[in-house]
Design goal:
Layout lengths: L6 H11 L20 E5 L10 H16 L3 E5 L3 H9 L5 E3 L2 H9 L4 E7 L5 E2 L1 E6 L14 E4 L5 H13 L4 H4 L2 E4 L3 H9 L5 E5 H9 L8 E6 L3 E2 L3 E3 L5 H12 L22 E3 L4 H7 L8 H11 L3
Parallel strand pairs: 1-2, 1-3, 7-8, 7-9
Antiparallel strand pairs: 3-12, 4-12, 4-13, 5-11, 6-9, 6-10
Helix pairs in contact: 1-3, 1-11, 3-4
């Protein structure tokens, strides 16, 4: 069922983000008091389950709440597009995005960087194209005529970067692939790959590692055919209209999250639920903008062509 996500739902996600007229809410944002908790919305990186993505971030926000007195209301969006929409219509104060969705919200004036996870001194991760060992695929060029799964159309590492890698390798997805399944999430891409419903798929290495550790996929049956350049970690962002003093508290807390009472090092998680060393609020808007160059060839028209292809069975 997860491979039969309707075209209308995905086209709605495109229109809510890439094609929408920029609009910034004028209402005041919440201030983190008990009556007006800071509304946090997370992209559904693991399918949008409350016990998945939310579980990864709950300990961090609980520790920040204990240290600062700020209150939070955490939810997971139904799609990547809905998270951008929530931030831009004033329904959220803090969001966790992929770089693509962050840049979409930034361009509409409704997001600024708050913090990035840090692991081994870096704040980067990688996207990949993975193929079944028995698929006969050994390179990007071999994807021609094959069945390929991709995630949410607004996902950085399960859509934009894999599509860009295919195009850089001489494969035009809408024209050259045998079939495209829009699985909706990294986890679903990898599930389709594990079950042999597709020959290859695009997902992040963090999600692949999580699937392997959870025994959702057998690494002996899947191989990497392409690995991306480093991508900035999916960022936490704050609405520009959040009070400056609240922003300062948040940034200080994220800079010191590993030292806060009420949290252990094992509970500090990042993208895909992976353990990270901490977070940094010393982030660069320019670095995030530069990340857009990894997938700038994935235009609105490319997205629409892929969705049209995916709707054809």
């Amino acid at each position: 069922m997860y491979l039969k996500q309707t075209l209308s739902r995905t086209l709605l996600a495109i229109s809510a983000t890439v094609l929408a007229v920029p609009m910034v809410a004028t209402a005041a944002q919440n201030d983190g008091t008990a009556n007006k908790p800071l509304r946090v919305i997370l992209v559904p990186a693991d399918g949008g389950t409350e016990d998945g993505t939310k579980k990864d971030f709950q300990p961090i926000f609980s520790a920040i709440e204990q240290a600062t007195g700020l209150k939070f209301d955490i939810k997971v969006g139904q799609s990547y597009g809905s998270v951008v929409e929530a931030m831009c219509n004033g329904a959220a104060d803090i969001a966790w995005y992929g770089p693509v969705t962050y840049l979409q919200a930034k361009s509409k004036g409704c997001s600024e960087l708050l913090a990035l996870a840090v692991s081994k001194g870096q704040s980067v991760y990688y996207s990949g194209l993975f193929a079944r060992v028995d698929s006969g695929i050994n390179s990007v060029a071999d994807l021609k005529g094959k069945r390929v799964a991709l995630g949410d159309v607004n996902s950085t590492s399960s859509f934009a970067v894999p599509v860009a890698m295919m195009m850089a390798g001489g494969v035009q997805p809408a024209r050259d692939l045998g079939n495209i399944n829009m699985a909706g999430s990294h986890a679903n891409v990898l599930k389709a790959l594990a079950e042999g419903l597709v020959d290859a798929g695009g997902a992040s290495f963090d999600s692949f590692e999580k699937a392997v550790n959870g025994k959702a996929i057998d690494p002996s049956k899947v191989k990497v055919i392409a690995k991306s350049a480093p991508i900035p970690y999916p960022p936490l962002a704050v609405h520009p209209k959040v009070d400056g003093a609240v922003k300062a508290k948040l940034r200080d807390a994220f800079n010191n999250v590993e030292k806060l009472p009420g949290i252990t090092k094992d509970q500090i998680r990042g993208y895909g639920g992976g353990k990270v060393d901490g977070y940094t609020a010393n982030v660069s808007e320019q670095d995030m903008a530069n990340a857009g160059k990894l997938f700038e060839m994935v235009t609105d028209q490319v997205k629409q062509d892929i969705m049209k292809k995916a709707s054809t069975r």
